[in-house]
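TA notes, week 10

Several of you asked for a full example with nothing omitted. So below is the full record: structure tokens for the whole chain, then the designed sequence directly under it. When grading your own attempts, check the secondary structure regions first.
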């Protein structure tokens, strides 16, 4: 076989479908985010405003976070030195897990190098702990959840997105004596819609199932202490396993689960994705803990972020742009074609210094391609003005549809 030719075929297919992903080199400037520098391929630099970052609250440059990281690296050096089972458990890792357990009012927490790994490792391990386990998964769950469920070798049922009636049908058809877990998200990041947490918990109670929720796009953002949508809605105590990230609203890196002490102990003891992975650098753990600690009391930052999101959505709606609005902080603008989506992204960057990546298949279904904007409290009114005017101009220039989508 001509392996190089086969690689050409695979890559050319992405180019032909308009789905080839291009990375651009961005240098974030401490204290200036969301403003950054684009290191262009021709060797020149261009100032840009980042509109697609997941540092939702600008915590990646918060003085408390940076100070904690500097102190930890000065005290301990760079890496952790091993897996958690060998030499990679430090006082910083323990402190971070205590912060996460306290945040979610659970007995314990377990940190991973990413929320992807936390989902994959936990969901692929659960059938080892509960033989015969049936997993009920929302069809729009994140790729990390799908991968963990696919690899676990257990029974799975896929229910239509947020369709609790369909979930009930599936659960009624199964053996009531078998162990079960319902797996879903609090906020689905591509549309920005909310999962029906209470209804999922009610079904779990009715059918004797565990609940597993991914709060990745909600932790730090919702609830009086930033524990997520479940905290906001007073439902955190009804959830058995909560997955979250330290790389979005908290502005650092890592993922975790929060659950009972026995659940965390079992995942720690059985999950290869935890056992065989070098732990987070102590400085990263220290910075994450500082961020979580700070956001437990910084409601003003959350409120400002929500205000900026509402302002942006209101202004885009006023122009008739096809935004998808489910009331969350995420602002997707529907394009519906991968080539147009990539072209808009390129034009925004090159003509206006606005950086937003196109969202194409397989991240979203074909025909629903979009630009996904993530306003933050550090995006100023001038940044919003510039973005709105640029989108208005490009929609006219590219003759795109202005009919607003309904939620």
């Amino acid at each position: 076989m001509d392996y190089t030719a086969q690689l050409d075929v695979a890559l050319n297919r992405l180019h032909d479908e308009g789905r080839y992903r291009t990375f651009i080199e961005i240098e974030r400037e401490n204290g200036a985010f969301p403003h950054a520098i684009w290191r262009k391929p021709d060797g020149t630099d261009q100032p840009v405003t980042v509109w697609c970052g997941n540092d939702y609250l600008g915590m990646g440059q918060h003085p408390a976070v940076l100070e904690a990281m500097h102190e930890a690296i000065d005290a301990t050096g760079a890496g952790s030195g091993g897996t958690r089972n060998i030499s990679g458990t430090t006082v910083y890792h323990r402190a971070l897990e205590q912060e996460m357990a306290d945040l979610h009012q659970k007995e314990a927490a377990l940190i991973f190098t990413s929320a992807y790994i936390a989902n994959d490792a936990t969901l692929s391990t659960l059938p080892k702990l509960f033989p015969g386990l049936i997993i009920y998964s929302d069809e729009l769950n994140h790729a990390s959840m799908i991968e963990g469920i696919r690899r676990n070798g257990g029974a799975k049922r896929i229910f239509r997105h947020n369709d609790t009636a369909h979930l009930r049908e599936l659960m009624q058809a199964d053996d009531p004596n078998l162990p079960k877990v319902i797996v879903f998200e609090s906020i689905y990041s591509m549309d920005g819609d909310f999962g029906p947490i209470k209804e999922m918990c009610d079904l779990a109670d009715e059918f004797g199932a565990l609940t597993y929720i991914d709060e990745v796009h909600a932790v730090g953002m919702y609830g009086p202490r930033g524990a997520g949508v479940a905290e906001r809605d007073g439902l955190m105590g009804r959830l058995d396993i909560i997955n979250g990230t330290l790389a979005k609203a908290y502005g650092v890196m890592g993922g975790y689960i929060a659950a009972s002490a026995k659940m965390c102990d079992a995942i720690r003891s059985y999950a290869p994705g935890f056992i065989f992975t070098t732990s987070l650098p102590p400085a990263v753990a220290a910075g994450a803990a500082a961020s979580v600690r700070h956001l437990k009391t910084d409601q003003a930052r959350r409120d400002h972020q929500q205000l900026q999101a509402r302002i942006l959505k209101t202004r885009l709606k006023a122009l008739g742009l096809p935004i998808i609005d489910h009331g969350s902080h995420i602002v997707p603008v529907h394009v519906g074609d991968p080539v147009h989506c990539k072209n808009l992204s390129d034009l925004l960057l090159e003509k206006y210094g606005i950086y937003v990546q196109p969202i194409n298949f397989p991240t979203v279904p074909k025909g629903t391609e979009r630009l996904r904007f993530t306003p933050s409290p550090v995006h100023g009114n001038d940044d919003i003005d510039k973005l709105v005017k640029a989108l208005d101009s490009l929609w006219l220039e590219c003759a795109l549809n202005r009919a607003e989508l309904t939620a």
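The CA atoms of residues 224 and 260 lie 22 Å apart. Use that as a sanity check on your answer.
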